[in-house]
């Protein structure tokens, strides 16, 4: 037994169709929790509308182990709402968020707690040194994604991090107070501030099953992170508008001077007219599209619907 940490620890695990790994995940997490001394713990599983045996496996686990708590959603709401539900329900002095697929090693928990205590860190976030067994496409899009977001975002986000992290009571309370419904959690935690310290680790291959993040979910995730953390696309649209205005102005001057000084050259103007119409039409549509995205997000927020609906809670 190592040093005793006098903390109650909440482990938050979102699960969507994870029947192939969930038992192993539970075992590795609870083995880790019994490998060091602490002031107690709870494992909160969030079943995000799984359509396989995940829910019944989780019920069995929760029946046998009273440290295990279960929140089950009425349908699939998504990874971020699932993690949010876990943070909102947790009672720990610190909470650790971890994926169900064992890509992030639970064995790192004691080190995370140690960094939290020794360095007075309010957030200890996992930073991927290496990503094993992920496709070239996933690695490339992830690399690009974090760099583009950082370029555009008003809040600086550490690159190559996921939601695998420890957060303390201050951060948990600040997070719970956030009113927005569409949450990009790792960005919000960065935005919350306090002292944030990285812990390096190697991201393993998914233990079993396949990714629950198809391209469509990845795009929605990227769009939330971009539009909720940056006003730059609007500025870009404004810049684009300004440039096209300038081009239009120059073109106008050229045509008018042509009319006066070179009337014979003005007969064949069809191609340039069509190009101008298409170009400016495109600029306008893109700009309206950007506006529409922001407006749509405002619409979503104004509706003020809950982020998720809970069907069942066990051991709470
Ligand atoms: N997940 C979820 N709801 C979803 C999609 C994913 O709760 O709609 C969970 C999933 O069970 C896993 C975590 O979110 O615990 C990360 O998903 P995954 O490992 O499939 O993503 P990847 O690592 O491939 O990006
Ligand atoms: Mg994964």
Written account of the structure:
With 316 residues, the protein is of the alpha/beta class. The protein folds into two domains: 217 residues, Spore Coat Polysaccharide Biosynthesis Protein SpsA, Chain A; 71 residues. It is 50% helix and 17% strand. It is built from ten helices and eight strands. The chain has an eight-stranded mixed β-sheet, sandwiched between helices. Helix 9 packs antiparallel against helix 10. It is elongated. The two termini are 29 Å apart. The model has no long low-confidence stretch (mean pLDDT 88). Bound molecules: uridine-5'-diphosphate and magnesium ion (MG).
Summarize the structure.
The protein is built from ten helices and eight strands. The longest helix is centred in the C-terminal third of the chain and has 34 residues, at 270-303.
